[in-house]
Design brief:
The structure is a homodimer of 454-residue chains. Helix content of chain A is 36%, strand content 22%. The first copy, chain A, is built from 14 helices and 18 strands. Chain A has a six-stranded mixed β-sheet with strand order 1-2-6-3-7-17, with helices on both faces. In chain A, helix 1 crosses helix 4. The radius of gyration of chain A is 23 Å and the shape is globular.
Chain lengths: 454, 454
């Protein structure tokens, strides 16, 4: 056993304690009342980096602060940029949490807390991987830059701007991102494709006040009716988005690629049982895995209007709205989607109401070449820690910032997630397996060594 | 000036004080936490009736109590049953009220409070009409029965049952109901038709927890998508409800009847300006008045699901729902509508979700014959108080209980509303004109006299 691995073993308990400390900070980026907690979380990350002798800055932005750090220079070694985020999703519905979201709790080998897997727990593995090298060897075998943001869950606006303005400072040979899942328990993965996203909100307003649905109904356009009609029109009976041109830029997979995907150890029936639904649904002509990874889709994420309380209220609401997203695949362009959506809303808006469109997030999908030496280095590091070679997969979610790394830094991105599908990222009872936490740290420490050889 | 009218004049200030007292009781029937306030409101009505020497009972029910009273017998005079309700609509959105809903406030000749026009203010006019006769003359010129409920806004379940079981006790020659509007300011009306209602709630449930819309989206039926699709399918592009057989029993008006309706002093443009919308919308081929009075329609009253907070949350919600109503016209049968709806929901329910249907209210529309002597008596009483003969109109809203009176008591119903269209019934800033309140009392006192002559 290497000295590094020994160090990790003997410090495992402390690492878990530090993770709990990090998770106790309620850093919900979407919540305007949490600005102080956001600053605390950024400071916590910066303190960790400074203690490991990295040159560290907390960078104020118009939104939540960035944390940037650089390790002492290692001549002739490549440079990796490690990205993560210290912000977390909102916690509602709060009543569905077994234990409070910001009181990390151990159960059955897992740690339950908002942000456990997304992304505090995963981010921390890379900090601890560095710590092991600095404490045991006194130096890293590779040049590392850390870039940690607090706006991943709300669109990464500050980070996008920082990268655009500081591409030279961030120059690197590859980017390391752990903000996703393994393929299955015991089956680690390197994710070579991500879907993009285009997330919107519509506000439909009609009469100048809530009206009695009896006295007025039939003669006035009902904003809640309109919301339903607009959303329903965006997808057809075969699960296909109806926006004109939506599929124009979608790259189809080759038969060979679809065969490889079909060969992955994925049991559709088990998948549906796990999330409690019966049977396959979605775009006609594709498997469940394809619908999640290589096909774009449309989901309503939020819906509101009128009376939501107990009993019956006969109201024709003055306003209603919805949040929804399109998941995009390479090469769909979010800007083109926005344009098409805006045109359709104009065309579909019935007389008597107004539709306001707000765009929240937009980022295209991304593909990583599987033949890069950095991917091979990551595969070796993962095999060292997890005991088996990773599979190469895609992921249905988006990390829009990964696209930016591709475009602005021209660097390969290693998407090596330590989470599990059932970790409840974005849901109540989010968790992270403590075994995966420690394997992630071990893989990270090994990754610095393997990248150093590239 | 008659002695009765003099009495009303000299007690006007006290009447307003008593109305304020009544309005201060937050008797929201839909709110399970208001049971004590409901009892207080019932007791308040009963105390009023007892003070006027009516034999009065507060009748407990499984829901909110009923108040029943009978005046001392007047031989050879007809009997009128006066109906009203002491319950009020919920107050949300509370932040839109200029003054608190249960702190009655005078502004510009109006009294603002939840229940001011619907129905506490209007109900009180009939109590004060009785009081005048008892105090000035010592007896009434007609036999009166009062039946006042606390569940009008939530379906009148207890009242329906009480009427079914006590038709003999409630036997009468006509029913008097003031729970609606005049045709326009200065244009009193007798409403000879009401639309019916069928009000439902659907709960759509899918996966066993909220899911990340990226990781899962496309492969799982989204309950919020489903809600939108179901609601959108219920009405077509021409404003017609799509349920099979929905229009089968609708009685079309004769050309003559449509001409009479078109002759009413109704300015569509002014109507739309008042509610802040531009231009006419609704079922193709009908005027705004016809769409409100003689045509059935479909309105979403409430809509919910997923994330409604600030910013973007990429969630595929585990559940979503909606409240909605069909407004019915004579002779549509709510039971047939429920059956058709249930069949369509079964047919439309996509795989992977369940749809639960809850029915809240159901009652057919009603028509009152214009040639009844009681209608003529009401017309004379209204002319006495308002200074002009009433027009004969319809109303888009429902008083399902009026249908029950027709069916169970075989009595004509006099629908004589003292409210105004812009009184904000069911909306924030509900009000009642104090001038209409006093004219209503004057008309009521005269009505007892006119009915006594029938």
């Amino acid at each position: 056993m290497s000295k590094i691995d020994q160090y990790l073993d003997s410090n495992a308990v402390r690492f878990e304690g530090e993770l709990c400390e990090f998770l106790e900070i309620p850093s919900v980026s979407a919540d305007a009342d949490r600005r102080d907690d956001m600053r605390r979380a950024a400071q916590w990350v910066a303190d960790q980096l400074r203690r490991m002798q990295l040159t560290t800055e907390v960078i104020p932005t118009e939104g939540h602060p960035l944390v940037y750090a650089e390790s002492p220079t290692v001549p002739d070694a490549p440079t990796a940029l490690v990205y993560g985020h210290y912000d977390v999703q909102p916690t509602d519905p709060l009543e569905k949490w077994t234990t409070p979201p910001f009181e990390p709790t151990r159960r059955d080998g897992n740690l339950y807390a908002r942000g456990a897997t997304d992304d505090k727990g995963q981010l921390l593995t890379h900090l601890k991987g560095v710590e092991a090298w600095m404490d045991v060897v006194g130096r890293l075998p590779v040049n590392l830059k850390f870039l940690v943001e607090g706006e991943e869950e709300i669109g990464s606006r500050a980070l996008e701007q920082y990268i655009a303005e500081h591409a030279d400072r961030l120059a690197c040979d590859c980017v390391v991102v752990s903000d996703g899942n393994q393929f299955a328990p015991g089956v680690p993965a390197i994710t070579c494709g991500l879907r993009g996203i285009a997330y919107y909100e519509i506000h439909v307003t009609g009469p100048n006040r809530d009206l009695h649905s009896g006295s007025f109904g039939g003669s006035v356009t009902n904003p809640a009716n309109t919301v339903a009609q607009i959303l329903a029109k965006l997808i057809d009976n075969e699960g296909r988005v109806t926006l004109p041109g939506f599929y124009e830029d979608v790259v189809s997979l080759t038969d060979r690629q679809r065969e490889q995907m079909a060969a992955l150890p994925f049991d559709e029936q088990e998948y549906f049982e796990q999330i409690g639904v019966t049977g396959a649904v979605g775009e006609v002509g594709y498997t469940a895995l394809e619908r999640r990874w290589i096909r774009p889709t449309f989901d309503v994420c939020g819906l509101w209007g009128g009376y939501q309380g107990e009993g019956a209220k006969t109201v024709l609401p003055a306003a209603a709205g919805a949040k929804f997203s399109f998941r995009l695949v390479p090469n769909q362009d979010p800007a083109k989607i926005t344009e098409a959506l805006r045109r359709q809303l104009d065309a579909w808006c019935p007389p008597g109401v107004k539709i306001e469109l707000v765009q929240h997030q937009g980022g295209p999908g991304v593909l990583v070449p599987q033949d890069s030496p950095y991917i091979e280095a990551a595969a070796r590091a993962i095999e060292h820690a997890f005991g088996r070679r990773p599979v190469f997969t895609r992921e249905g979610g988006s990390i829009p910032i990964v696209t930016t790394f591709h475009q602005q830094l021209k660097a390969d991105t290693l998407l090596i997630g330590w989470g599990q599908e059932d970790d409840n990222a974005h849901s109540p009872n989010e968790k992270f397996s403590l075994a995966d936490f420690h394997r992630g740290i071990k893989a990270s420490a090994k990754l610095w060594e393997e990248l150093g050889k590239c």
